[in-house]
Amino acid sequence: xxxxxxxxxxxxxxxxxxxxxxxxxxxxxxxxxxxxxxxxxxxxxxxxxxxxxxxxxxxxxxxxxxxxxxxxxxxxxxxxxxxxxxxxxxxxxxxxxxxxxxxxxxxxxxxxxxxxxxxxxxxxxxxxxxxxxxxxxxxxxxxxxxxxxxxxxxxxxxxxxxxxxxxxxxxxxxxxxxxxxxxxxxxxxxxxxxxxxxxxxxxxxxxxxxxxxxxxxxxxxxxxxxxxxxxxxxxxxxxxxxxxxxxxxxxxxxxxxxxxxxxxxxxxxxxxxxxxxxx
Length: 279
Hints:
This protein is of the alpha/beta class. It has 2 domains: 26-113 and 216-263, Periplasmic binding protein-like II (D-Maltodextrin-Binding Protein, domain 2), CATH 3.40.190; 119-215, 3-Layer(aba) Sandwich (D-Maltodextrin-Binding Protein, domain 2), CATH 3.40.190. Helix content is 37%, strand content 21%. It is built from 9 helices and 11 strands. The protein has helices spanning 3-23, 39-53, 68-75, 88-97, 147-160, 176-184, 195-198, 228-239, 266-274, and strands at 27-33, 58-64, 83-86, 102-109, 117-122, 138-141, 169-172, 190-194, 206-211, 219-222, 254-257. The strands form 2 sheets. A 6-stranded mixed β-sheet has the order 2-1-3-10-4-11. A 5-stranded mixed β-sheet has the order 7-6-8-5-9. The protein is globular, with a radius of gyration of 23 Å.
């Protein structure tokens, strides 16, 4: 083969390989995460998980959002492929907005499909811990769509016959970490947060006033634009017991299991109760 023919053959092979690579290039798909904790910890939790979800056909990129509402808007959008780690409130509302969102797998903690919220206060000598002590005091809440930091404590007050008007103030914060910081610095008297986040602060002078019953789990979902075949592949990947060690960055004893509608039966009851709360 002459030098010219050899160069021509090499050029053709290179062009074909480049075209094949281009046609097989992985499409980018955001993993939408709501701001329930401070951004640094959220990145440490979910960036390794997003990388693990990626492969040659799809590149999952972590997207830390500014609000729960932004996450709700984006996961129910019918135009773009998205994955999302949703809290139970956002998941329940997303199903109302767009029934075509695709549940992938529910998060498990210690092999249980629920989480708990803890109502906390700063420990004070000689003071008994009682939910009724909230009367006349400041309560910290989180995002309005947060079950653990906002909706559950309001539900608890309703169940006990305490109205929000009986509180001195309800102070809103962006995430669970800010609520805990406000408690430590005496900016508020009480606040409710996810148990796993609360546990990192309990040795710093905070005490538990109330532990919630089991609450519906967080869940990984796909928007309706994500191909069905890819969803099925992700479900198999997430629920395979051999892959549980891949979720270590998400927290202690984390995993995923198959979606069950019964796990979210509490949500209609919650909203029905909250709709009766007097202003």
